[in-house]
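tool_call: predict_structure(chain=1)
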Amino acid sequence: MEIRHNAIVPLGYGKYYRSDKVVGLEPIEKDRGPARRTFVFIEGRSEPVVASRTEAAILKDLVISSREVEASVLKDFLERLAHDLEKVGPIMRRSIREETGLDIDAILEKIRRLLAPDEEDLPQDSLF
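tool_result:
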């Protein structure tokens, strides 16, 4: 697991902190209640912040899952592969396709589709 950097983590009741500034979580045992679930230790603060969310819920927002790490590595690999394949000239592409059946243009098109942002991820101003 890795700490998610520069992400804002909700602690509940309007309290938010940057994920990389959280240095510790401790469940509240004495006087625990709906608005008092977890002590959150923040870098630069001498006293912990009282959070209304459980330590497990906060921790889930703090870390990047192993699947997210793997997806990021694969995305970087595909970007580098596409960059390198784009350097292959048209004559060499045709020669490779004729000799091996490997279609670099088709591969590049598939990579571009995989790397293209989903329509939901597009900024609003790009829709009009």
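agent: The chain has two domains: 2-64, 66-117. Proceeding to next step.
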